[in-house]
Amino acid sequence: MAFEKGKNQNKLTDKNINKIIETYRNRVDVDKYAHVASLEEIEQDKQEIAELEAKINEQLKILGIHV
Questions:
Q1: Would you call 7 helix, strand, or coil by DSSP?
Q2: Which of 12, 21, 47, 64 is deepest in the core (most CB within 10 A)?
Q3: What is the pLDDT of residue 57?
Q4: How far apart are CA 16 and CA 26, in angstroms?
Q5: How many CA atoms lie within 13 A of 47 on its CB side?
Q6: Global confidence as pTM
Q7: What pLDDT shows up at residue 4?
Q8: Dist CA 64 CA 49 (whole Å)
């Protein structure tokens, strides 16, 4: 588990913080935990996000909500 449940909020443990830092430093893929994306993947994601935002804005406009 990546966090411990707290009363009002969840809290990362020192062990899990260290795992995040080491995974980042080593730049490794870890199944269901971390992925090292290529620049091409990042550009593709940015394009998909822009397209989705345009669709959402068009739907909001139809509903009379202007952003």
A1: coil
A2: 12
A3: 95
A4: 15
A5: 6
A6: 0.54
A7: 65
A8: 22
Mean predicted confidence (pLDDT) in 23-27: 96
Token pair listed for 52: 């989705």
Using CB atoms within 10 Å of the CB of residue 19, give its burial: 0 to 12 exposed, 13 to 18 middle, 19+ buried: middle
Single-letter residue type at 22: E
Task: Please list, in sequence order, all residues whose beta carbon lies within 8 angstroms of the beta carbon of residue 16, skipping any fewer than 6 positions away.
Answer: 2, 3
Two tokens, residue 65: 């909500």
Token pair, residue 20, equals: 């995040």
Token pair of 42, please? 């990042």
Residues 39-64 pLDDT 10s: 999 999 999 999 999 999 999 999 99
Residues ≥6 apart with Cβ < 8 Å to 2: 12, 16
